[in-house]
Design brief:
Blueprint: E1 5-15, H1 19-25, E2 30-41, E3 46-50, H2 57-64, E4 72-77, E5 80-81, H3 87-94, E6 97-100, H4 114-124, H5 131-141, H6 158-170, E7 176-180, H7 188-205, E8 208-213, H8 216-222, E9 225-230, E10 233-239, H9 240-245, H10 250-257, E11 308-309, E12 315-316
Parallel strand pairs: 3-8, 3-9, 6-7, 7-8
Antiparallel strand pairs: 1-2, 1-4, 4-5, 9-10, 10-12, 11-12
């Protein structure tokens, strides 16, 4: 089966100063926020990118959506390469990618009604038809009364605004929906409602989701597969159930140990990750986790671990896996 989305050796590099200042200070003139990431996503699947702040997951998502240019590598959607296209051609593909933004308030215009905010994709892409009818249908699909169309963003709760964001992302029936922290800032009960909504929409409409989150409970609830990112690289990838039951990278193991366990009778020893995320200015020649790893080997400080592929597509890069 041909994947719906293919991310191939993607690098996203940001300049951080002039070459002259870099030469004088001895620091790099640029940093790789995403450093050679590859993965694929099948139609109708939910795939999650997980990691701490600064891991590169949101930058990678923006690159996939064409909002941030790639420095190397490519993105293929529906069998067609979309990275590197001129803006005029890229516009045609952007209708195939819906975005659910982390900040539902900031992503909506406060001066426009909910109806006008949801209708924006139709106007931008020159869609005809009965827009009011389409908006009413979208509101119904996300569980909001059609009367909410006449309200303004400040009149809605955080959970309701999140549903509006979902409705707008679905307006043009995209092939792929990228959701950046879809439950951030919501109460636990409202988080569950939003996640259930995404699951229901996927079942009803066959939507493909790419979820960006640091919340592992979100991943466990919704994702078929997940990738764990650290310093712009994927360090572990595979089926969600397999990774939760047996993490094979020390970083993943530490993240999971800090995650609340839904079974009150289950016990899990907390594994502390000591120190801050290392600077991208000074990448280690080998594995980049040893300064924070409780079980680091000397070889890891000089040699980058190769990718080990286990059963069911569960892969990881670790010299001393748990």
């Amino acid at each position: 089966m041909t994947p719906l989305l293919e991310v191939l050796d993607v690098v996203i590099r940001f300049p951080v100063g002039s070459r002259l200042s870099a030469a004088l200070s001895g620091t790099p003139a640029s940093v790789d926020a995403v450093a050679g990431v590859s993965f694929s996503l099948n139609a109708g699947e939910t795939y999650a990118l997980v990691g701490e702040s600064g891991s590169g997951k949101t930058t990678l998502a923006r690159g996939i959506a064409g909002l941030t240019p790639l420095s190397a590598g490519s993105v293929v959607l529906g069998g067609e390469k979309i990275s590197g296209l001129p803006e005029r051609q890229l516009r045609r593909f952007r209708r195939d990618v819906g975005m659910i933004f982390q900040d539902p308030v900031g992503s909506l215009s406060p001066r426009l009604s909910i109806r006008s905010n949801i209708a924006e994709p139709f106007r931008v892409h020159g869609e005809g038809g009965d827009i009011d009818l389409n908006v009413a249908q979208l509101l119904d699909e996300v569980g909001l009364p059609s009367a909410f169309g006449s309200r303004y963003p400040h009149q809605l709760s955080g959970g309701q605004l999140r549903r509006v964001g979902v409705a707008r992302a679905l307006a043009l029936r995209p092939k792929l929906v990228i959701a950046d922290e879809p439950t951030a800032g919501l109460d636990v009960s409202v988080q569950g409602e939003v996640l259930n909504l995404l699951n229901e929409l996927q079942s009803a409409l066959g939507i493909t989701f790419l979820i960006i989150t640091h919340n592992l409970n979100v991943v466990r609830h919704i994702a078929d597969r997940l990738a764990v990112m650290y310093l712009g690289r994927i360090v572990e990838e595979g089926p969600t159930a397999a990774i939760f039951s047996r993490p094979r990278h020390r970083y993943t193991q530490a993240l999971l140990s800090a995650n609340p366990e839904p079974d009150p009778d289950a016990r899990r020893d907390r594994i502390e990750i000591v120190g801050d995320v290392p600077s991208l200015f000074h990448r280690a020649p080998g594995c980049e986790f040893p300064p924070r790893c409780p079980a680091a080997l000397d070889v890891g400080r000089v040699d980058r671990p190769a990718v080990t592929i286990g059963g069911a597509g569960h892969s990881f890069t670790c010299h001393n896996p748990p």
